[in-house]
Amino acid sequence: MGNRLICICSMVSEKEILSALKKGARTTADIQKITTAGTTCGKCLLSIDQIIEEFNAKRPEGPQQSLQFG
Ligand code: FES
Fold first, then answer.
1. Ligand 1 centroid, distance to 67 Cα (angstroms)
2. What are phi and psi of 6, to 5 degrees?
3. pTM score > 0.90 for this model?
């Protein structure tokens, strides 16, 4: 996992998305609220979904409900 740019519109990197996931984000909506990635053109949403899926698959407790942000 590197620091590639995922959302060009909001200049959000994979590292920032992973950081949000580590802090408790669970869904694409969580990532959008925390990082603003995927809130402009939406072209990066598939990539965000993939990062979330990969991250959730590695969680020891498995995927869980979204935490409430904002
Ligand atoms: S590239 Fe992410 S919203 Fe446009």
1. 23
2. -95, -50
3. no
Residue located nearest, by CA, to atom 1 of ligand 1: 7
Q: Is 42 in the pocket of ligand 1 (CB under 6 A)?
A: yes
| pLDDT surpassing 90 at residue 1 | no
For residue 58, give every residue at least 6 positions away whose Cβ sits within 8 Å of its Cβ, in sequence order, or none. none
Cα 61 from Cα 70, distance rounded (Å): 24
- Tell me the domains of the chain and their CATH numbers: 5-58 (1.10.10.1100)
* Sign, Cα dihedral of 21, 22, 26, 31: negative
Q: Please give the torsion angle defined by the CA atoms of residues 28, 50, 59 and 19, in that order, rounded to the nearest 10 degrees.
A: -60
Closest-CA residue, ligand 1 atom 4, reads: 41
